[in-house]
Amino acid sequence: MSHSWALALVLLFATGAEAQVGSAIPSMPARSDSALEATTTMLASELRCPVCQGNSIQDSPSELAQEMRSVIRDQLRAGRTPDEVRAYFVDKYGEWILLAPKAEGFNLVVYLVPILAIVVGGVVVVRTVRRSTTGPAQGA
Amino acid sequence: MNWKRATTAVAMAIPVIGILAFGLTRDPKAIVSPLPGKPAPSFALSVFAPGEGATALNVGDTVRLADHAGQVVVLNFWASWCLQCRDEHRDLSATATEYFDKGVRFYGLLYNDQESFGLRWIQEMGGQTYPSLLDPRTRTAIDYGLYGVPETFFVSRDGRVAYKHIGPISQRQLSQKLDSLLRDGAGAP
């Protein structure tokens, strides 16, 4: 009887220890995997899918986009920085691959024109509103 | 006053219409590749379709770009589901045979497709004179910045990408580019 109690205690500790080990081993890669996946998702969202119209490789279901996500993941896992991964794709596809072009040189037009349009539009709206509100007062 | 407004509206509309009209004249698929002039990405891929005659290799052989230093190499990415690949197939096969003795090597690279479909397609097309290679997980295609198929890359004797052709290529276009590369002799040993 005492033997069976001892055996039960040994089994209990053994399973407890195994459970602890079992939970400890996957938890370490799980954390690094989640960081890797987050960086992969971030980079995949910045890159244009070559076989789609205006989709990122993160949003595209195409096989090429899936493979490009794998390339990103593999390169990050191999120790490359996000900038180095971006540079790899720019080296192969040109700056066209970046969904948001770099804010330099002629690309600045893309960033400045909307701001200019908002400012000019705002001025037009303000002037029109002023004119319409002051108009009747002058006439009265 | 109305004339002034109309003139302002037209002055603002003209640049917008001009930009849109310019956009319509451009082919959105014709994207300039940064690869020409740069060293061709290396690869080691296995043969799944052997080719014919003098150009033939054994199925399962590994082809490495590095083994072709000093030779002009033509890489044609294709797929069995690609309709435009049918248009260029005969011209590629004929040119590969014509330029073999001049030291030019042609390879087909199967893109995003299954080996069995590729073999059936070659059979349906009446054969392929040059070997075709498998590109597992399209890694070589990504290394070459591929947008779609067919695309053809010309690697000069010094191992650089000399030209990239998007879409089906004709025998005349192939000959022009190859003659130019052979005449140029850039990097010839």
Write a concise keyword list for the protein shown above.
heterodimer, A: 140 residues, mainly alpha, Helicase, Ruva Protein, domain 3, 2 domains, 4 helices, 0% strand, B: 189 residues, alpha/beta, Glutaredoxin, seven-stranded mixed sheet
Question: What topology does this entry show?
Answer:
The complex is a heterodimer of chains A (140) and B (189).
Chain A: H1 2-46, H2 63-77, H3 82-93, H4 108-139
Helix pairs in contact in A: 1-2
Chain B: H1 2-24, E1 44-49, E2 62-64, E3 73-78, H2 83-100, E4 105-110, H3 115-124, E5 132-134, H4 139-143, E6 151-155, E7 161-166, H5 171-184
Parallel strand pairs in B: 3-4, 4-5
Antiparallel strand pairs in B: 1-2, 1-5, 3-6, 6-7
Helix pairs in contact in B: 2-5
How do you describe this structure in short?
The complex is a heterodimer of chains A (140) and B (189). By secondary structure, chain A is mainly alpha-helical.
Mind explaining what this structure looks like?
The complex is a heterodimer of chains A (140) and B (189). Chain A is mostly helical. Chain A has 2 domains: 2-100, Orthogonal Bundle (Helicase, Ruva Protein, domain 3); 103-140. Chain A has helices at 2-46, 63-77, 82-93, 108-139. In chain A, helix 1 (2-46) crosses helix 2 (63-77). The longest helix of chain A is centred in the N-terminal third of the chain and has 45 residues, at 2-46. Chain A is elongated. The model of chain A is unreliable at 9-29 (pLDDT under 50). Chain B has one domain (44-184): Glutaredoxin. In chain B, helix 2 (83-100) packs across helix 5. Chain B contains 5 helices and 7 strands. Chain B is an alpha/beta fold and 189 residues long. The longest helix of chain B has 23 residues, at 2-24. A 7-stranded mixed beta sheet of chain B has the order 2-1-5-4-3-6-7. The A-B interface holds A 50-51, 63-64, 67-68, 70-71, 90-94, 96 and B 31-35, 38, 112, 137-139, 141-148.
